[in-house]
Amino acid sequence: MASANPSNSATDQVLVEDKQFVRTLTLNRPKQLNALSHDMVYRLLELFLAYEEDPGVKLIILKGKGRAFCAGGDVAAVVREISGGNWRAGANYFWKEFSLNFVMATYGKPQVSILHGIVMGGGAGASIHGRYRVVTENTVFAMPETALGLFPDVGASYFLSRLPGFFGEYVGLTGTRLDGAEMLACGLATHFVHSAKLLLLEEELHKANLNDSDDILQIIDKYSEHPVVKDNSAYRRLHIIDKCFSCRTVEEILSSLENEAAKNKDDWISAALQLLKKASPTSLKISLRSIREGRLQGVGQCLAREYRMICHVLRGEVSRDFFEGCRAILLDKDRNPKWKPSSLDLVTDDMVGRYFTRVNDGNWEDLKFPARSNLPPIAVAKL
Amino acid sequence: MASSDRVTFRTQILNRHLRPSHSHTFSPPVSVSSSPCLSYIPPDLTEPASSFDTKEMRALLDAHNIQDRDWLFNLMIQSNLFNPKLRGHRVFVCPDYNQSMEQQREINMRRIEYLLDRGVFKGWLTDSSEESELRKVAFNERGVVHLDGACVGFSLNLLVSPCDGLKIRSSYPHSSKRQVLLDFRGGAIQFFGTKRHHDKWLKVTEDLGIKGCFSMTELGHGSNVRGIETVTTYDPHTGEFVINTPCESAQKYWIGGAAKHATHTIVFSQLKIEGKDQGVHAFIVPIRDSDGNVYPNIRIADCGHKIGLNGVDNGRIWFDNVHIPRENLLNSVADVSPDGQYLSAIKDPDQRFAAFLAPLTSGRVMIAVTAIYISKIGLAIAIRYALSRRAFSLTPNEPEVLLLDYPSHQRRLFPLLAKTYAMTFAGNHLKSVYVKRTPETNKIIHVLSSGLKATLTWHNMRTLQECREACGGQGLKTENRVGNLKAEFDVQSTFEGDNNVLMQQVSKALLGEYLAARKQSRAFKGLWLEHMNEPSPVILPQLTSSSLRSSQFQTDIFFLRERDLLNRFVAEVAAHQKQGRSKEHAFVLGHLLAEDLGRAFADKAILLTFIEAEANVSTGPLKNAAAAREEVMKLCSELRPHALALVSSFGIPGAFLSPIAFDWIEANSWPSSQQVP
Fold first, then answer.
1. Residue B113, phi then psi, degrees to nearest 5
2. A213, A256, A367, A383, best to mutate vs chain B, most B CBs in 10 Å
3. Yes or no, beta carbons of B49 and A248 under 8 Å apart
4. CATH number of the domain where residue A219 is located
5. Residues in B 92-121 with any Cβ partner in A closer than 8 A
6. Buried b vs exposed e over A15-38: b needs ≥16 C-beta within 10 Å?
7. Would A3 be classed as within a structural domain?
8. DSSP state of B580
9. B166 pLDDT tier (thresholds 50, 70, 90)
10. Looking at residue A72, what DSSP letter applies?
11. Residue A102 lies in a domain
12. Does the active-site annotation cover A145?
């Protein structure tokens, strides 16, 4: 960490509250739906590393101010920075963000993330890797990157690929939204707590002894409920999802979905098809391969691979869909991106393969992680 | 920790070992009791960053269809059919050793159906392009990976290529040609049949509409296919063939898939037309209806429990006057007309038999490349374990030493690791000549696949045994996989041709080339024997480290060894013949040299293909990575920092390794032991 005295903006953007053994960190950019700025990522990483060494800290609670937990990385800012041609500035941002994801995934102390409201992209990366993920009746989760010309990053190729069957491919490729009950059912969340009880939960955590990590579990369990997954949820059609999203290629996934759509009129299938057809073809292909590789790798390897991929995305040598996606969705907001290549058959295996290679540029380096020590077995298992 | 404390600690541990019942009488010093336990430190965090890109190295090793392979891993990991087990917070695709033979067979069939349903076998039989063949090989290698007792890989073979369990050998006593072959049932139709069979059977086999098996081996005849005793005659009145098992030794044996599932079989049988024996031919015979009822005049029995591969339902078959249509003769080299005339373009029965069996080298190719893949699993497990397990301190104040930091442990595992790398490239070479095969390359494929099949499967057993021992007591646990793999793959040295017999095949081919070259006063050609045209290489009396490491020197000594053995073998055979013995007899007597010569040939082939693979690796990181070859020949201590990266490059997902490759302390903790067994 370069700076011991973070700028005011960083301090404001992440509020810190000390209560006995608990540190509560609140993402505080409500107008931007707590999108993670460079400063916030920097600050969170610094705090997490410091708390890990601090025997006075036994639990970290991470939450968001306002109606979102966190809507993602501050992609708009990244695009602004690199549109001047400086892709490395963007790469630096992701280096830090992925380092934070890695630290959270291998953290020695429990992290409770309160996912009240929107959790997307970078927001998922800042929470799903942690031990406990508490969702509510207001949670909306998505990994919407393929619609943005990006791919599910922040270690999503690790956690999506660990969902049951091929649900991860479905969530990652379509960018579909999940509610709290679905997140709990598929394992993205560990607990469902009604939002009315959140304050009580936090208070009890503040007061607890926390000598044993089971204490935390027992407290959260006390406030948890087991909501029913709604009838029309795609999660109830896991066998169809497995059948379609286990296909070898994106093209085969699409055609098997179309087969299913012809057989039964199910809203989720047509919605999924629509989302896939709207997404960047390049994004879909690199995302599928990333998830498939991710399933066979540890979290560190996943993040390192994603870092390679993101650098290629930022350099825009194979496709500039990320810039086009940001233009259409975030800047001009015409919601009508013109992808290039424009269709799946134009995205060759070679083009996809290039995203997974080292970046051939001067002193570019593969992602290296902060040193870790004394990892608990559960974190070790993720490596 | 003060040194005295450390000494006390060690003493205490030693005492516990020696007198476990008295351990409670020692009260540990405070500094020790605060942290008396070992903790698992993942080598992935502590080992030096790899000096090459493991991904690129994997691409070199796997060579083709990498995403397809990963896809297959994905399909297996995400399905409950493959026996996922949670150990130490990680999921392993575990051998199902607690299942009975019946259960293993049943689950195996369901696995195949699942993979079929996912499209894994699309095009396996109907698409014979090079690309499709490579994909098939890739899936076979991978499928085999975790194939437990219920060995899916073998079932893949079964299905796509049901071969009879202890596959097929044919011998050619008169012409000194001997073929060892296998094949798959669908493959058999492809190879032995003609268009009428392809149209009728291939697609439906690929879709599992019919389940086939391959009936070649008999109780009395394995390697010697020409000696089989099953007899088929033709009845011109009904236009049917009639198949019979004339005696107990003619019962079909080890027929994979026959005991339970197969609906059809390819029967290899002597064909007698008007009392004249026309030699071995192959016929398609239905043996069960789709509900699994065995047809009349066919008797089937189980081969019973085996030391491995119990997921494969090997069976025995007897035929009692079984009638089949004339069209069911697989007529690639010979046919019988409706009125009972025997027709073949190849008049000489020896040549006919050779032509008939020539294409069936695919089994040996599959076995060779599978064997080397299994070695990788064993090594990845043993080396990862040795990077986290410690034993004994060198000095009282020091932590205990990692197993892999002991030169002795390095010496045990690294040469095997190096050979596994080299043999991987040899296997890749074999695959590439196989998929590009032409009638002209049949001979080299026969020789090369024989030599490599024997060498790679022997190497695999040797490697697994060393890995088992290197894992100590943990190696004994079936869930740690190494021992299980030993049992599952032991038979590889037998099927597809006994390894020793195969090595004699190689020597015979070398002898043949030697005699032909001498007789025609021409230069040696093919089988990498061109070095015989050069003067014998001279090995300097004083070997230096750098000359030892030069590929020139290495090639020279391998050439020299082969030249020496070949010359001696030729001389020995000639000497026996001079004493009035037949060539065949002379050959049998020369077996010692023959087998050594076979090994020398295979080792040379491995070295040369490896050197070639290295030469083809051109740029950048692979200069590092070609590393591999350099490392291979270097001293073990130089290899040590790369050990983790080298086994990571195998690209075997953690789920297909075993608990001792990861956090074995957590996997053996009390809470873990309370989970499902």
1. -65, -40
2. A383
3. no
4. 3.90.226.10
5. 117-119
6. eeeeeebbbbbbbebeebbbbbbb
7. no
8. T
9. very low
10. -
11. yes
12. yes
Total residue length of chain B: 677
Q: Per DSSP, what are the bridge partners of residue B343?
A: B335
How far from B208 is each of A377, B115, B151, B289, CA to CA, in Å?
44, 11, 18, 14
Q: Tell me which residue in B45, B71, B666 faces A372 most closely, judged by beta carbons.
A: B45
Which 3 state secondary structure label does DSSP give B272? Answer: strand
Distance CA A99, CA A110 (A): 18
Which pTM value belongs to this model?
0.87
The tally of domains found in chain A comes to 1
DSSP assigned state of A329: I
- Rounded to a whole number, what is the distance in Å from the CA of A371 to chain B's nearest CA? 8
Between A and B, how many residue pairs show a Cβ–Cβ distance under 8 A? Answer: 74
Higher pLDDT, B443 or A319: A319
Q: Which of A46, A52, A56 minimizes the C-alpha distance to A18?
A: A56
Give burial (CB, 10 Å; 0-12/13-18/19+) of B535. Answer: exposed
A247: distance to nearest CA of chain B, Å? 7
A256 in contact with chain B, both atoms CB, cutoff 8 A: no
Q: Any bridge partners for residue A23, and if so which?
A: A18, A60
Give how far A289 is from chain B: nearest CA, Å: 8
pLDDT band at B140 (very low <50, low <70, confident <90, very high): low
- Quick check: is A325 catalytic? no
- Residue-wise pLDDT for B214-226, tens only, equals 899 999 998 888 8
The whole-angstrom separation of Cα B267 and Cα B250 is 12
Q: One of B496, B562, B614, B631 is an active-site residue; which one? A: B496
Domains of chain B, start order = 210-357 (2.40.110.10), 362-506 (1.20.140.10), 545-675 (no CATH)
Which structural domain range is residue A206 located in?
8-380
Which residues of B fall within a CB distance of 8 Å from A166? 78
Q: Hey, what amino acid is at A294?
A: G
Residue A288 neighbours by CB under 8 Å, 6+ apart: A169, A173, A249, A250, A253
Whether A165 has its CB under 8 Å from any CB of chain B: the answer is: yes
